[in-house]
Write a structure and sequence with these properties.
Blueprint: H1 6-27, H2 32-65, H3 72-95, H4 102-130, H5 133-145
Bound molecules: fe (ii) ion (2 copies).
């Protein structure tokens, strides 16, 4: 594996987040407390992933290509807002400990699957091809240094 591959790392993070949501679905009708802990890990992880992309990956792409408003990152940012809305709809069901959230899960998974596929096929490989080793290493350092309060954002009762 090449050092600091953005595609490898972020694709793996997509997979781990999907797994957490599937675990929530598997557990929610038998052990809601366990399901909820998976949901909270999913929520924080997804919020962290989106901040990593919007604060670090997308600006690196925009700087390298000069594409901002008309480029793929503008589309990805808009999709992040849709994903955040779908996440919040599911979050409201979880706050009420209401397992009847199949529709919210389906909507969120559908948005994520098409969004993630685009990033994995286009944006991440383009970033790996465009950025030098030093730049990518800098991005991974900044990812590690992101303060928790940027993504561990939830309501008071979790
Ligand atoms: Fe994204
Ligand atoms: Fe992503």
């Amino acid at each position: 594996m090449e050092p600091f591959s953005i595609r490898t790392y972020f694709q793996q993070d997509h997979t781990e987040l999907d797994d957490l949501l599937v675990q929530f679905q598997t557990l929610k009708r038998s052990d809601y407390a366990a399901a909820k802990s998976r949901f909270v890990a999913f929520k924080f992880g997804l919020q962290r992933h989106i901040v990593w992309e919007e604060d670090l990956l997308f600006p690196a792409w925009e700087k390298a290509t000069g594409q901002t408003e008309s480029g793929p990152t503008a589309v990805m940012r808009r999709e992040h807002r849709q994903i955040a809305d779908a996440l919040e709809a599911l979050h409201r069901k979880v706050q009420a400990a209401d397992p009847e959230s199949d529709a919210e899960e389906r909507a969120l998974l559908a948005l994520l699957s098409s969004h993630n596929r685009k990033e994995e096929r286009v944006l991440y490989p383009a970033l790996d091809g465009t950025l030098g080793d030093e730049e990518r290493a800098g991005i991974f350092r900044a990812m590690n240094e992101l303060p928790e309060e940027r993504y561990k954002v939830c309501c008071a009762d979790h």
